[in-house]
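haha ok so turns out i had the wrong file open the whole time. this is the CORRECT one, sorry everyone. sequence first:
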Amino acid sequence: MTKIRTRAILFDLDGTLVDSTAVVVRVWTEWARRNGVSPDELLAVSHGRQAIDTMRQFRPDLNDLEAQAAEHIRIEESDTLGIVPVSGAPELLRSVPPDHWAIVTSCPSVLARVRREAAGLPEPKVIVTGNEVRNGKPAPDGFLLGADRLGFAPEECVVVEDSPAGIQAGLAAGMRVLGLTTTYPDLPVTPTWARPDLSGIQVRRLRESGELELQIP
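then structure:
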């Protein structure tokens, strides 16, 4: 068993706590086909990033991308079919003290709430969404803001992520990263540790130091 001492845990949402793959594939495939883009190429890089950033990568020539991104998000907010929690997520979150974890996601606020509630997961005291930061993942802005809101230094935090952009963001923030292979079986970015999902992972509070001990089987 791997035992990691930390003060706080910052979780990504999609692919880390919530499995929204079915929705993501449906909505992005439709956008890609409508705009003459390969769905496979788009889906290979879209995860963990803000929608507008992905659209700009593939169709920078379009002058209505802001409107398209807003419509894209609206469609995702209305589609919850197939959303479930990632294996082990409910149990893990129940073991973490409320003041010591946060969600840091590229989703805008409403979409983050819709997906979290669809998966039946609790609302954290701190959540940082894509519309609150100037630079989205792989920039570290979101994780730095999450740590600040919880009241911990970056080096006191562990990030849990599944996307290359998110892993890069966590490492760039000066944090250790537990990478999940829920979305990418072969992670192209090397995290500090790697696991298939959250199954069997628990947290206990160390009485003598007040730290958390993340226990990974």
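The chain has a mean pLDDT of 93.
again sry for the mixup
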